[in-house]
């Protein structure tokens, strides 16, 4: 009997199959019996195979809805050698996930983009040796098909392992050093920093400092853009390095800048959170913004709109970064050609500069 005939004439016991499925949980055999097709036909439909007649396809889809059947992902993984899951690895302590709004935007947008392909996202934190080992064991164990790497730090052993091809991986921002073999999606960090520094120069500021973060992705490029514009005026005492893009680091760096260069009249912070910390420290020190010191940030996160005064900053298109990261990763998983991508930035003028 053809598949079309199978689909047109459901098995006479199909109603019983539906009732049994409701009582004990549906199986692929229940779907086949209700649809009036073979078990193999159901399997081909569920696995997206071709060569299934339209009538059989419609019958199987209707039976799946009626029984409430869902594919056993573990069983499917044994056959396809794929987990239909991707790890979102954040190389930061847990508290940073909730402090920095950029991470929540990336997490939300990556989750949505993967869901369109029926792929789950698994959030993993990696800020200690123990967490790093756990992430590596999980990734090497075949639990995910790829990795989205967020906020990678220079010299991180996890980045080096992923660069050796443990699983397909894509970084948010350009990894440095030998880890640069990993494809990445990034804003044009260097040009964005040039835009901000040129803006501060155009405002008539003469002693422009920078709160830099060269150990985290994006940091070296932003420092390079600042130096490109100022040249010899980018004095060593005008640049303070931090280890992360946090509020506390920004406040501490601003305190150091004021001590080393009390005549400073502008500061470019490598992130909005760093800039928010700098604003708080300037307020504590009695410096008016922008009258005494102009402040610029980088990101255009919600923090930039909530500071007092609102922050002049560089907008990086995070939603597009997330979508492109997922696209590049899925291409790599499918073993299709894929390359790194750079996205344009934009100067957003507000009251702080």
Automatic annotation (TrEMBL):
Region feature (Disordered): 1-25
GO MF assignments: DNA-binding transcription factor activity; transcription cis-regulatory region binding
PROSITE patterns: HTH_CROC1, HTH_LACI_1, HTH_LACI_2
Coiled-coil stretches: none
Superkingdom of source: Bacteria
Domain named HTH lacI-type: residues: 26-80
Listed CDD domains: HTH_LacI (cd01392), PBP1_LacI_sugar_binding-like (cd06267)
Keyword vocabulary terms for this entry: DNA-binding, Transcription, Transcription regulation
Bias (Basic residues): 12-23
Keyword Transcription annotated: yes
Domain HTH cro/C1-type: 27-63
Protein name per Swiss-Prot or TrEMBL: LacI family transcriptional regulator
């Amino acid at each position: 009997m053809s598949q079309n005939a199978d689909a047109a004439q459901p098995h006479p016991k199909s109603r019983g199959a539906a009732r049994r499925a409701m009582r004990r949980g549906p199986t692929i055999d229940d779907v086949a019996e209700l649809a009036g097709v073979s078990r193999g036909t159901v399997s081909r439909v569920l696995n997206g195979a071709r060569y299934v007649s339209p009538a059989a396809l419609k019958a199987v889809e209707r039976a799946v809805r009626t029984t409430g059947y869902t594919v056993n992902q573990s069983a499917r993984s044994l056959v396809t050698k794929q987990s239909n899951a991707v790890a979102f690895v954040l190389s930061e302590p847990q508290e940073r996930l909730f402090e920095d709004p950029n991470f929540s935007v990336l997490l939300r947008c990556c989750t949505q983009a993967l869901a369109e392909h029926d792929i789950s996202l698994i959030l993993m934190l990696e800020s200690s040796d123990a967490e790093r080992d756990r992430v590596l064991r999980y990734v090497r164990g075949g639990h995910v098909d790829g990795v989205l790497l967020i906020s990678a730090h220079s010299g991180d052993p996890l980045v080096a392992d992923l660069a050796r091809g443990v699983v397909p991986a894509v970084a948010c921002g350009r990894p440095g050093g030998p880890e640069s073999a990993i494809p990445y999606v990034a804003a044009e960090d260097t040009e964005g920093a040039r835009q901000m520094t040129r803006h501060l120069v155009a405002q008539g500021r003469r002693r422009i400092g920078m709160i830099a973060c060269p150990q985290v992705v994006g940091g070296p490029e932003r420092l390079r853009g600042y130096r490109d514009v100022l040249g010899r005026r980018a004095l060593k005492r005008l640049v303070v390095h931090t280890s992360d893009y946090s509020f506390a680091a920004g406040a501490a760096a601003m305190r150091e800048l004021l001590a080393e260069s009390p005549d400073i009249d502008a500061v470019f912070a490598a992130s909005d959170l760093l800039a928010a910390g700098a604003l708080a420290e300037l307020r504590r020190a009695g410096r008016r913004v922008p009258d005494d010191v102009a402040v610029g940030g980088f990101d255009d996160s919600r923090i930039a709109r909530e500071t007092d005064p609102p922050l002049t900053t560089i907008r990086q298109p995070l939603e597009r970064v997330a979508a492109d990261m997922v696209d590049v990763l899925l291409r790599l998983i499918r073993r299709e050609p894929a390359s790194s991508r750079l996205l344009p930035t934009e100067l957003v003028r507000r009251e702080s500069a």
